[in-house]
What does this fold into?
Amino acid sequence: MSWLVENYDRLLVALWEHIQLVGVGLAISLALGLPLGVVAARRPGFAVFILLVSGALYTVPALAIFALLIPYLGLGFWPAIVALVAYALLIIIRNVSTGLRQVSPDILDAAQGMGYGPMRRLFAIELPLAMPVIVAGIRITVVTQVSVATVAAFINAGGLGDIIFQGITQDFGEKVVIGAVATSALAVACDEALRRIEMRLRAAQADAL
Amino acid sequence: MLQWIADNPRIFTVALQNHLWISAAALAAVLAIALPLGLALTRRRALAGAAIGIVNVLRTVPSLALLVIMLPVLGTGFLPSVVALTLYGLPALLLNTYTGLTEVDRDIVDAARGQGFSDRQVMTRIEIPLALPVVFAGVRTAAVQIVSAATLAAFIGGGGLGELITSGMANFNFPQLVAGALAVALLALAVELAFAALEWVMTRSTGLRD
It folds into this structure.
């Protein structure tokens, strides 16, 4: 553990870089994915298209995506963000549209009867009711992004993967393990935190109904 | 991509063979562990909760972390890659085997017992056939995850198509890098489609759809 004691600051920098990759990737994915998810819920054809593309893209290994982006985008933070958004966008769109389509037609009729317009109905009724499913999508997205962001160190995007790759090139096992444990801990912590939020939302909804 | 493969057929086939070998060995190990373990857990519900908790944590661990975390203990090469990929594919199949078996309708099992089926017969003629579609979906997920993550085995000396990417990057050999990346992307998609087709044929032939 001597490396960790002497270099904890470098681990913290790598962790911060990792969180930035996931945070920026998630923010962009949500900004694009939420409106597209609403469109997918209204148009089943678009939803099928999204599911097909998401299935195919999700299968492609992260290292291959990063490698294929190099000739077009080069190396660094932003090319990594493009790959992170590509993985995340489709999960978010899928879950937003599933969540919206699960809202009971009776509730929608009642809202219409009370004079809600389409926009007000969307923001005051549909999105809040779809929130547990949307948060479930965010949870899958974040766990995937923490994993993909580790490999992003391969294209010089920094993050905890950097510690792992440095350890491998320097043949320094302790550093490799510390990098791997830190990444795993980050993934497990994010998963658990979002799982709790999801459970709380579901419980609150069960109480309200 | 095709030009590079045509110029270096030997390097490419060795990488592809390695990739398929590592993936096949890991998938075989996953089947050998997850199927009996999933079945055993349905008989010991007390253990099942703990086992599923562990597997859910394992499922969250990033693929690269899982591949390198045992580096100081297991070293590099074929075997450590297979061990790591086995752990990576295990959760999908174990969870589906357990869920598939527990979701078998209790009424059907009771009816079979009423007709004088032994425990063994209930298992082999009722529970396993009825759980098969869900179990097979788990095999498909595990297979695709393993083939995909096997790309990262290149980082611990396991070879495979990922090596074309890493050495292409190290030597600024971009045709090789792109050839490796496209090949592994196509391989992952081919495995996904092949298993989807197999699943479709199986569920149709056994008449277990719905």
About this structure: The first helix of chain B runs from residue 2 to 7. The CA atoms of residues 133 and 203 of chain B lie 6 Å apart. Chain B has one domain: 6-205.
